[in-house]
Amino acid sequence: MLGLKLPTDPRWVNIVEKNIEEILTDHAYCEQKAASTAISLIIGFPEKSELVKEMTALAREEMGHFNMVHDKIINRGWVLGRERKDEYVVELMKFFPKGGSRETHLVHKLLYAALIEARSCERFRLLSEEIDDEELSEFYRNLMVSEANHYTMFLKFARKYGNKEEVDQKWNDLLDYEAQLMKDLGKKETMHG
Hints:
By secondary structure, this protein is an all-alpha fold. It has helices spanning 12-17, 20-44, 49-75, 87-92, 102-130, 134-161, 164-182. It is globular. InterPro entries: Ferritin-like, Ferritin-like_SF, tRNA-Hydrxlase_MiaE.
């Protein structure tokens, strides 16, 4: 359903289980960055009224998720750690060339966001099915549904604002690139790494 070309190795969950505090901190910042992405789309493309409306709702939802993850951290007696660099996103953002029209830039941002949400959804599914911590298993099962909706929304907007055939080709090329990236990732207790 998600179109990912390389699934996460299920052994990634074993790495996560050894440091729940780290994955929760990383996850909290992923939710915050997702809200920031929604806000940056509003700022960059205010004339796209449907996009603005959806991104406003998304920013609220993502900050709600941030708060839920933060509560999990606090309830376990920890504090939110400092933000980590997301190697996955840094490398992913190198795929599309810089420059181009505003419309092209928008389509690229939407495709990046769709893929990040798809990978998050896949990781949440894996955690919901494989993690021994029952509370976190249920938590990630619930979040998985939202992430799937986010992924499809971003893809829908990319197809709306760009040429559908070109967008679909770019999406497939980006999926291939991401699969190559994932071969070197999945060895850390981070949401995407």
